[in-house]
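Exercise 7. Predict the structure of Exopolyphosphatase from Thanatephorus cucumeris.
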Amino acid sequence: MIDTSGLKDNGKTTLHDTTAAEYLYPRTLFGVPTIAGGEPNKDHMTLSDLASLLIDAKRDVIRLSGQELLGRDYKPFAWKNTKGEVVRVGLSTVPMGLKHWIERDGKKKFWADQQAWIKESNIDVLGVLTTFRTRTKNKHKREMLIVFPQDEGVADAPSGLELKLYTGIESNQDLGAVQKDIPGIEGRRARAWEQTEKQATRKQIAPAIQAIIEAS
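Solution. The predicted structure, encoded as tokens:
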């Protein structure tokens, strides 16, 4: 229900999804209009209303800490470059915009959480993929943030894998990555983008990053 946005015809919903929903929904507490004795079921709701409730619950992450946001929908990957070296990448999908997140936590805490998660997860590259609706016009947006491990101090100009990832992402038209500035990113081994291609999710971004790494 959540991954298909309420069984919408958006390219994600399959016949298995609709068949499963048609079978399971009438067998849940929400799908029964009446209870024993013919009394109305106060918990009954339509499939559409149930989907909206579940989606809203998924997006309600305001109480989660920065590291909890990174860990709630996280997938690790390991790919080899042309030298046979393993590059460990973690991709976190977060239902909150970067601006909102930084305003909430402050830029110092925000960036500290990125580095702490990189260290805890033992990865070489962290990708933060945001998907959210704007607070004023309710427009759907996606962003991407790539972060590399970094000690204190200002980072040098991007080079090596860092530069290849940045240029590879920006040249991939399927991702629609337009570089953007966010608070605190100056002098960091990190780059942020707004995605003009809203359909580019982790399923498309992971293979794109994999191809860049394996060619590096």
